């Protein structure tokens, strides 16, 4: 199926993009989420504003954390030495998005604006306490990743607003990992788990855990975190955290005929343990 007719405009600045978007327009960066939806007429914008060449939306800066331009590609993030040093879990997640062609053109900002529940980066952003920076006609604002993702394909982003960058705290003193159970055909996450662990010797002093894929949005898991803190991350602690995880994600669980909710919930616990082991090395 072909998309309905639309007007196309390439913007060379954030201000120009915001001025051009109109009431029924969409921003276009890599296009790997928007264009398939348009071909199926699930999305029918009358105007596309190409933001993929705006310099202010490009690049990665590491200074006391990470700041990543919204139009930075998954491949650039996955291969960045700065990202690998400051938040290795995000580099890993972006390296598992789609295939190489998708990673070469797909962008982090477009990925989180689309908010596919089976995508990889949102889970890491929620676990690591990222902040989404947004600009609109009325000014700019910042939203924590946990509050940005609201529901299935639903975010806090309002019509006419543009994600400009994503910032993450410095996680270089933590042990972080992202692991997933990929769908055998699409490679989307049936279950994805991100952990960020701060150790005090052999004791876990702080634990941040998020689950995606199994849920309609990336979910922060306070119960699992509490079960890990103060432990040596032994089998008993990980089993307790996996049990708590079921309650953490219960109201957000989503399944299908092939991978029902009960299966995804069970696999979330399994992959939590794998993520912890991966983070510990």
**How much β-strand is present in the residues?**
25-35%
SS-derived structural category: alpha+beta
Strand tally: 14
Mean pLDDT: 95
Q: Low-confidence parts lasting 5 or more residues at pLDDT below 50?
A: none
What's the total helix number? Answer: 12
Q: What is the H-and-E element order?
A: EHEHEEEHHHHHHEEHEEEEEEEHHH
Termini separation: 47 Å
**What does the overall shape look like?**
globular
Q: For the largest beta sheet, what order do the strands appear in spatially?
A: 4-5-10-6-7
Provide the helix percentage: 25-40%
Characterise this structure.
With 281 residues, the protein is α+β, with helices and mostly antiparallel strands. 35% of the residues lie in helices and 27% in strands. The protein contains 12 helices and 14 strands. The protein has helices spanning 14-20, 34-39, 74-78, 81-86, 88-94, 100-105, 108-114, 121-127, 145-148, 222-228, 235-249, 261-280, and strands at 7-10, 25-28, 47-50, 60-62, 65-69, 131-136, 139-144, 149-151, 154-155, 162-169, 175-182, 189-200, 203-212, 219-220. Strands 4-5-10-6-7 form a 5-stranded antiparallel beta sheet. The protein has a 4-stranded antiparallel beta sheet with strand order 11-12-13-14, sandwiched between helices. α2 (34-39) links the parallel β2 and β3. α10 runs antiparallel to α11 (235-249) and α11 crosses α12 (261-280). The protein is globular and about 60 Å long. The protein starts with 6 loop residues before the first strand and ends with a helix. 47% of the residues are buried. The mean pLDDT is 95.
């Amino acid at each position: 199926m072909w998309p309905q007719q639309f007007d196309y405009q390439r913007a060379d600045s954030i201000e120009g993009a915001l001025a051009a978007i109109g009431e029924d327009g969409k921003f276009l960066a890599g296009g790997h989420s928007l264009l398939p939806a348009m071909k199926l007429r699930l999305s029918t914008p009358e105007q596309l504003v190409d933001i993929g060449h705006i310099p202010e939306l490009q690049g990665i800066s590491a200074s006391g954390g990470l700041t990543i331009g919204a139009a930075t590609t998954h491949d650039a993030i996955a291969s960045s030495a700065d990202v690998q040093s400051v938040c290795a879990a995000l580099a890993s997640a972006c390296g598992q998005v789609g295939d190489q062609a998708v990673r070469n053109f797909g962008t982090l900002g477009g990925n989180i604006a689309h908010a596919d529940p089976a995508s990889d980066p949102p889970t890491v952003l929620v676990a690591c306490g990222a902040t989404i920076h947004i600009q609109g006609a009325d000014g700019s604002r910042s939203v924590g990743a946990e509050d940005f993702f609201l529901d299935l394909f639903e975010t806090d982003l309002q019509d006419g607003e543009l994600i400009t960058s994503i910032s993450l705290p410095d996680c270089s003193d933590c042990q972080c990992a992202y692991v997933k159970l990929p769908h055998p055909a699409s490679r989307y996450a049936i279950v994805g788990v991100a952990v960020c662990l701060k150790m005090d010797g052999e004791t876990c002093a702080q634990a941040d855990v998020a689950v995606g894929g199994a849920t309609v949005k990336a979910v922060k898991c306070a119960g699992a975190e509490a079960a890990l803190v103060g432990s040596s991350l032994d089998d008993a602690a990980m089993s307790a955290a996996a049990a708590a995880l079921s309650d953490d994600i219960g109201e957000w669980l989503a399944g299908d005929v092939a991978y029902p909710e009960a299966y995804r919930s069970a696999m979330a616990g399994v992959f939590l343990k794998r993520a912890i082991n991966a983070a510990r090395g």
